[in-house]
UniProtKB/TrEMBL annotation:
It catalyses: aldehydo-D-ribose 5-phosphate = D-ribulose 5-phosphate. It comes from Naematelia encephala. Pathway: Carbohydrate degradation; pentose phosphate pathway; D-ribose 5-phosphate from D-ribulose 5-phosphate (non-oxidative stage): step 1/1. One of its GO terms (biological process) is pentose-phosphate shunt, non-oxidative branch. Keywords: Isomerase. This is Ribose-5-phosphate isomerase. The keyword Nucleotide-binding does not apply. GO terms for cellular component: cytoplasm. It is an enzyme of class 5 (isomerase). The keyword Isomerase applies. Belongs to the ribose 5-phosphate isomerase family. It comes from the Eukaryota. GO terms for molecular function: ribose-5-phosphate isomerase activity. Its EC number is 5.3.1.6.
Amino acid sequence: VEAAKRLAAFAAVDRHVGLEHKFIGIGSGSTVPYVVDRIVAQGPEANRHRVFIPTGFQSKELIIKAHLTLGDVDQFPNLDVTIDGADEVDNDLNCIKGGGACQLREKVLAEAATTWVIVADYRKNSHVLGTTWTQGVPIEVAPFAYAKVLTNLSQLGSPHILPNGKPGLALRMAKMKAGPVVSDNGNFIIDAPFPPEQMKKPAELLHQIKMLTGVVEVGLFCDMAEAAYFGNEDGTVMIRH
Ligand code: DER
């Protein structure tokens, strides 16, 4: 799987990060480190006048450790290109994102960029959202509102128990910390699975969820990606536009 991630990342950087690209958004997750590796490999001359804007703590550390110039979206709100991972991608390049609880800043940098590109391994290459990523739509919520939003999501059709008996709609609890996961913005994450008929219309579902008071951002990225690069096990890369 790592080789597939590297393949996707390298292909995307080679195609979308040229010398003319100065302001570059770096996403979050386990695939984007290969994006940074490939950019560093372009050499100090190519990177001397570039600024790299992170989508969270992990992304910021990646940029710093690679000795690339770190910038802030406050200072550089108009990016040339942002490259990011995804948890699942459908036929129309709509994505589920937020497995790493970074979707608010990721969506800000995706929208701030002229070009937004997805890099992923073959496991994310899906047809209908919710098929391979079954944990639910990651939703960042204000802590004050999480219980109310859980009620709203249940009323919207998100089941507390999945058909296979596994837990469904839930506040995302931390593993090495008592209590819930807290995002880089100090908010909670709710994971909300929905039945296929609703996941087949991600833009509609996104709007319904986004309208719930207390929701900060929704891990559905619809009609945003310029291209998606999927690394395959056989060493090939599939590019979808
Ligand atoms: O949280 C996210 O959206 C991240 O981009 C992440 O989920 C991407 O997954 P990866 O670790 O397989 O790259």
